[in-house]
Amino acid sequence: MKQLTCRSWGVSNSYKVSKLNQLTRGWINYFRIDSMKTLCEKLDARIRTRMRMCIWKFWKTPQNRAKNLMKLGVDKDTAKVMAYAGKRIARVCQTKTMNFALNKERLTRLGLVSMLD
């Protein structure tokens, strides 16, 4: 999973999503996960966080980050504070604001498959 969501890997996010979906489906079909619900929930949350980090890195500049956060429904002041947070990508992507802006439904619309679905 870490290799497929590497922020410095120079491929599009849609390609990363398709590769993650292949990995997820293969893993679930191979192991036939029935009683591993808590493990699947934790892995699913981690995959979504890693995808948020990839999207954050893809936005590149603080101006683009603030603009895109505002497009996703975050108020202007909070978007600017988040955008100019510096190089703490992992910390920013675990906040409630990022979970609101790039929630599970939006990531599903990007094509990311949940392990629990």
Distance between the termini: 18 Å
Largest sheet: none
- Structure summary, number of beta strands: 0
Average pLDDT number:
87
Oligomer: single chain
Sequence stretches where pLDDT stays below 50 over 5 or more residues: none
Helix content: 55-70%
Note the overall shape.
Answer: elongated
The number of helical segments is 7
Alpha-beta classification: mainly alpha
Radius of gyration: 15 Å
Task: State which percent range the strand residues make up.
Answer: under 5%
User: N-to-C SSE series?
Assistant: HHHHHHH
Which tags fit this structure?
117 residues; 7 helices; single chain; mainly alpha; elongated; 0% strand
Account of the protein in words:
Helix content is 66%, strand content 0%. Helix 3 packs antiparallel against helix 4. The protein is mostly helical and 117 residues long. The protein has helices at 13-31, 37-59, 62-71, 76-83, 89-92, 96-101, 104-110. The longest helix is centred in the middle third of the chain and has 23 residues, at 37-59. It has seven helices and no strands. The two termini are 18 Å apart. The chain is elongated.
